[in-house]
Design brief:
Blueprint (H helix, E strand, L loop, with lengths): L3 H8 L10 E7 L2 E8 L1 E3 L4 E2 L6 E2 L5 H13 L25 H6 L7 H8 L6 H9 L17 H14 L3 H10 L8 E2 L11 E3 L5 E3 L12 E3 L1 H12 L9 H6 L18 E5 L2 E10 L2 E8 L4 E7 L6 H13 L25 H6 L2 E5 L5 E7 L2 E6 L1 E7 L4 E5 L5 E7 L5 E8 L5 E6 L6 H7 L1 E5 L4 E8 L2 E6 L6 E5 L4 E4 L2 E7 L5 E8 L2 E11 L1
Antiparallel strand pairs: 1-2, 1-13, 3-4, 5-9, 6-9, 7-8, 10-11, 11-12, 12-13, 14-15, 14-21, 15-16, 16-17, 17-18, 18-19, 19-20, 20-21, 22-23, 22-29, 23-24, 24-25, 25-26, 26-27, 27-28, 28-29
Amino acid sequence: MKEAEKIDALFAPLDRPDSPGCAVAVLRDGDVVLQRCHGMADLERGIAITPSTVFDVASTSKQFTAVCIALLAEQGKLGLDDEARAYLPELPRYEAPLTIRHLLQHTGGVRDYPALLGLAGLPDVTPAGALALIARQKGLDFTPGEEFLYCNSGYVLLAEIVERVSGQPLARFAEENVFRPLGMGRTAFSAEPVAGQALAYSPGEEGGFQIDMEGVNLPGDGALKTTLEDLCRWDRNFYDNRLGRGGPGLIEQLVTPGVLASGEPIGYGLGLFLGEFAGLRFVRHSGTWAGYKAELLRFPDLRLSVILLSNLGALDPEAVSRQIAEALLAEHLPPQPEAEPAEVTEEPPFIDLPEAELEAKTGTFRNRATGRMWQFSRHEGKLVAVSGLFFEIRPVSRTHFRAVGAPAAIDLYYQEGPAGRPAAIGWHVAGQEPGVLEPLELAIPTAEELAGYAGRYHSEELAATHEVVAAEGGLALRLGAAPFAAPLEATAKDQFTLQGAVLDFLRDGAGRVSGFAVSLGRIKGLRFEKTATA
């Protein structure tokens, strides 16, 4: 195939006896038309990667957990719209029902257990411990069905539901109902390494590679061990299903997009992302755990699939798979009409604004969705944005500004508030969902205020107690009995940040600090109550 040379060139740097690598397959109509193995499965013992090398595929596992749930539904042992508490009575009664479908489609609002472990200061957890941790959460990130937020906790709960309904652990149920019928003899859910498994690596600090196989790894949301050969068998079943009752019904369930309570569809089915690439429908899921990377990408209308398994932590499986797809799909894309040469201009039609209007655009803002802080200020007569990156922004109109010298096309749309100050900024970055930047009034706490924050704080939901301590004119947070405290950065009044986490301190009716609520990625508003002062 003529695309093979382009694909091989992507992996040429890995074809060495001193590098981890990957196994790649391309399938058309269920037949393997390209199969390549690059690099080493074990650098110390000089073992090369082969099609039968075992990899941990991390979150690519979720589709297998989902198909187990779908098979149980087909058997009449559960319903996808059953409330999760019917099978997991230890879960709290939330304000609205949390269903199995919500868990499958990441629309339940359950807090993500890996982030909970980090906030609790715990390095690892067992499946039973993760279930107990999730069940202790009294709140959700949002009302079930109202939003989509990718969440590993839902699939830990689904693994437990499989066991309670079938009477078998997920690993055994999947073996008997999925892997064995499809001849996937080297595939199993296992938190521990298995025979023939590649070691995973990340780049070493002083060159070379170091083993990277640490971290939480629970069956259900991850921990599937499999091979390139077995995933080819799995892919064939996508087009000619032999599981359960057979026929296309089971697969159709997996690839039917979920719908929010508002009626808005989401790009996720049951354990699979759904979308379009170059106008073609795709079904995919990637996986990343420690130094393992995986991607299974399908274009169902062309009956074309790409499978990528890697033990190199620096590899981006989704990006590389897209590059492979671009090489494969060139002949399927409609020819593009030759456009007339467009007039080239070095910059858009910027305008000049009075100094007072530019000054009114300065200040500190926070991205409402990500929590990232942005500082807009005047520098050498220009209006600049700073947040790790540094670039100029120039006015296209009084309320529309555009970035100059930024790594991506960025447009800012100012909503004017009192005294000409921005009430908010619409944040549009090419290739990303639009966002909103909200103004913050930076606060520099006094020594007396810092002393008021210091103390011990306890979370019943985490069963953890942390300490806020005064340190070098600021604050620091010590997790549990950790030997060190990490510095907190003051932002707005009663608000501090730490490595992406936002801590909002709470006050009682008398104005005393009574606790804090922490938000971090897939966790929103987890409360700690102050139990003692410093």
